[in-house]
Structures are given as C-alpha cells and as structure tokens.
Amino acid sequence: MRKLVVSIHSTANNIVTGPPDGDETDFPRWAQPGIDQSTNQFLTSLDGVDTMVLGRGTYEDLVRKWPNVQEWPDVPDVAVRIAEKINTAHKFVVTSRSTDQLDWGAYEPATPIAGPDLERQIHQLKAAEGGDIITFGSPVLVQALTNAALVDEYRIIVHPVIMHEGRRLFEIWTVGPISRWSRSSRSRPAR
C-alpha cells in the first residue's frame, strides 16, 4: 500500500497559513527565514511521490503558479525542479463540485474527489499501484485526513518565526497516535 505523506511549512508556534483576512496561501511572507533550506527539503519530500491530493484552495493557488513557472524571469533551478515534479504528478482535488474542470495548463488535469465517501476514495488511492501520495498546504484537508487515520507520515518544515495570525495545524485533531514524524531530515516514531 502506498503511503500518504503530509508535507507542510509551519512557524515555531504551529501557524501554517497566511493571515485569515488576506491570502491564506501567502505563507512565504513569514517563511523567509530558512527559505533556502526549506525549499530544498520540500524538493526532497517529493522524491518517490507520483500523486498529490489537494484541497480546493491549494489547487487554485498552485494552478496559477506551477504550470508556467519556467516562463518566469530569474526562476531558481530548485523552483524549476519542484515545478517539474508537481506538474507531472497525478493530482486529485477534494472539492464539493464533482463536475469541475480542473485543468493544469499543458499537463494532465486534476481529478475531482467529491462526495461523502472521501475516506473510501483515499483508501482506494492508497491501495492503487504507484509511488507515494503527498498533500501539502490544505490544513483543513490535512486535519480531515488525520481524523480519518489516513496519514502515514508528517514532514513538518518548521521556520524560526512566531506569528500571531493564521490557521494552526493542530487545532481540531481527534485521531490517536501519529504513525511517523519527519522533522527536517530526521525522522522518529511518535510516542
């Protein structure tokens, strides 16, 4: 069975989004301390991944950027390498509208996951042949996947900043023990 991995950027006090009154996907505003190291860690987290599960908001943010990143001026090599991995991965988007067209530029479009049986659909993805599955961003989706005991590994990239606004990752979790933590390049079993 394939692993479902969560990779997410966080402040030292567990904030994973931008402020709620603005663009919640604007975490780079506070992620600048340590951004080079965390970008390389994120690239590494995509090794072995061939499928992404995204929340609708994260999909909307990513589809505006990654399919065309090579056209941007002065794009760092690491961003081009991340774009290649993201653009060529199979993408599934959790959405309330199953009939949505989820284009991804010149690449394979994303597939909607909709309806009340999200848990069953994710189990089917995990049981299918292929590489690991990753989700990033999408803190509400991460919480739902965790509450359903579907997450196999967490890769939390902690930035050395404290923020007072934004969504916290660990606000509403109800599941039992976490199967595995990955912090920076070290991993240890949860207790």
TrEMBL record:
Gene3D superfamilies: Dihydrofolate Reductase, subunit A (3.40.430.10)
Pfam families: RibD_C
GO biological process terms held by the UniProt record: riboflavin biosynthetic process
Entry's Gene Ontology molecular function annotations: 5-amino-6-(5-phosphoribosylamino)uracil reductase activity
Origin: domain of life: Bacteria
InterPro entries: DHFR-like_dom_sf (IPR024072), RibDG_C (IPR002734)
Domain Bacterial bifunctional deaminase-reductase C-terminal: 79-171
Protein name: Dihydrofolate reductase
Organism annotation: Friedmanniella luteola
Lineage, broadest ranks: Bacteria, Bacillati, Actinomycetota, Actinomycetes, Propionibacteriales
